[in-house]
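Z., the sequence and structure:
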Amino acid sequence: MRAAVYLILANLFWAGNFVVGQAAMKTMEPLQLTFWRWVIAAGPLLLLAHLVEKPDWRAVLRRWPILLLLSALGMSGYTLLLYSALQNTSALNASLVTAANPALIMVLAVVLLRDRPRPLSWVGIGLGLCGVLLVLTGGDLQRLLTFSINKGELLILAAITVWGLYTILARRLSVPAITSTAVQVAIAAVVLSPLALITGAGLPETPGEGWSLVFIALFPSLGSYLLWNLALKRTTPANAGNYLNLIAVFTAIITVILGQPITVPQVLGGVLVISGVLLTSAGGRAPQRPRSSKSTSSPASPSPSAGFRAR
């Protein structure tokens, strides 16, 4: 029950990142929000890693090339694409498309790693693809023939592709979970600094922008990572991965509470995507014995079954 509560809260906070991120994009720029999000989160995450995991920092820093690449993909690339997408599409659409991420990761694993999923997994991937197409086209499949898909939805497709590559590369990273995440976040803050300086990505200028940044830095960036890792000490990555479907569900609930309409294609597409993810997970390889708490099945180095997202 404790693990379930942790996972529910973690995914609720990640859903909040979509909704609050979309609101913030009305007055802020993607680089500005991404940069300050990681600047604020870096220090507390490094401290948390040191207190909880007590890593050998010299050994961790010797892995800097792969950590730099993962930071560029997962912390900088994915986040910039996500916030750019939220400038042009709804938070609900973005969350529904990203719900298909585990299926995309499995396809990338087949192409890049020669994995061989079971037939049921392919059925799940097909269902998920149909759901994504419904969301992207709003039920008008003619849009596929005319290539009239919204810019924001194309950006979110690019974002989940980047995250899929991140996940594949992170599978073999032998660095403790919170430590890996913290180092990648710190690298992102440092690497993005020159760009932020050149583009004038200053601190938020209005109270609304400030509260949006505080929420994203504290809850999706810090709270969700901590809750996710606490849950993984009490349950398997595969089980935790199934809870990620709640991101789209919570986003839909928040959307309704805020008085925004939900369309039939969004509902049907969401059902297909989530059903496809569950089938993909059910049709995966036979479960393996869980690794230690310092394994890479974590926020920074997720397994495909967990389908973790750095929201």
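Residues 286-310 have pLDDT under 50 and may be disordered. The chain is about 75% helix and 0% strand.

Let me know what you think.
H.
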